[in-house]
């Protein structure tokens, strides 16, 4: 049973189709990486990242969706950088302090993590308090 203050989140059919296409591109990119099919892997970075950005833009008015979709954009960016670093051969280049070229992928991974931490530690509790005050 739904409560009076439960929110229903629906996705318009064209958005859902775009999200499904996004999953297809993402899988093709990762298959290209796994099988070391460089042209496929690199080619699929662009539509995968583009659709992730479009999904993020379209859901920007819903804070939870914005946070999670931004994290996905950073995840795909990190993942794509890591893949390309392996394909081009700078993943093992020493940068100093024991870090290698692939360790630079940590920057977008951490950016996505920080966005989610902010959402769960700051934004979501703020929204819960606002709902409690509004319900009073």
From TrEMBL:
Record-annotated membrane-spanning stretches: 36-57, 66-84, 104-122
Assigned keywords, A-Z: Membrane, Transmembrane, Transmembrane helix
Keyword Transmembrane: yes
Keyword Transmembrane among UniProt keywords: yes
Protein's UniProt name: Uncharacterized protein
Provenance organism: Hymenobacter luteus
């Amino acid at each position: 049973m739904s409560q009076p203050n439960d929110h229903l989140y629906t996705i318009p059919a064209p958005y859902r189709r775009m999200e499904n296409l996004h999953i297809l591109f993402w899988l093709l990119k990762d298959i290209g990486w796994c099988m070391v099919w460089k042209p496929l892997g690199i080619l699929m970075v662009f539509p995968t990242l583009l659709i992730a950005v479009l999904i993020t833009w379209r859901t920007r008015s819903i804070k939870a969706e914005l946070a999670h979709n931004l994290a996905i954009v950073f995840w795909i960016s990190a993942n794509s950088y890591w893949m390309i670093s392996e394909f081009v051969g700078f993943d093992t280049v020493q940068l100093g302090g024991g870090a290698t070229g692939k360790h630079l992928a940590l920057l977008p991974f951490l950016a996505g993590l920080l966005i989610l931490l902010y959402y769960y530690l700051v934004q979501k509790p703020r929204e819960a308090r606002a709902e409690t005050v509004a319900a009073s």
